[in-house]
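ugh ok fine here u go
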Amino acid sequence: MDLVTIAVLVLTGIGVGFASGLLGVGGCFIMVPVLYWIYSAVLDPKVAILTAFGTNLGVVFPTAISGAYRHSKKKAVNFRIALVIGAFGALGAVFGSTVATFLPAKILKTAFAIVIIASAIRMLTSKPPKESKAVGNPILWAILGFIAGAFSGFVGIGGGVIIVPILAIIVGLRIHEAVGTSTAVMAFTSLAGLIGYILNGLRDGIFGCFPVGHLVGYFNPESCLALAVTSVPMAQVGATFGHVLPAKWLKLAFVVVMLYMAMKMLGVL
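structure:
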């Protein structure tokens, strides 16, 4: 990679980390479009989008751990729910990432945008409780986790854009705890999805030195490192700031960024 590309990724990592810690998302709505823009200039569109998905998940994993640690210090992580949803979300992520490798790039880009738009609209129109009142049982959480994980793996995201609304609307956590618990869940789903993209990429013969750097399956370690070097520490900053921001403004920020990046992926903006 040239110095300009590295600089773009390092700067992107700052926004990704802050958004991850602040909103309980993996920053996929920032990373995937940027990575796809870089990769599609020199790679086949399908390889470019799948590599953007896989590399994105590689960054989400350490970033989510960083954010979850900070949220746990604020007692905003429900570990019981996170473990159940995360474990079954990991299974779903492997399934979703495998399905994605058999589909055309256009379908993947469109699916990515649709999932984010639908989640944003639902988040905007819902009224999460002011106090956490978790409902359901581990079986329901497991089902929700697998579904969220499958979508996450399919569109190459950590799953925060799906998991936060699920936790706030269906499970019944207040928005700050939904955000904190989501970061813990993403550690499971992102790692599982990453493994899926690496293994399926190796199956497809994607390995070696490419114009964008080395590829190990649908994963680019150089891009991942350039992004993670700033995203991981910035997740701490975002998580700290998130507990200062009022719930309604936190939700609004979540929705605005999601809709903007979805429109970019569809080519509307």
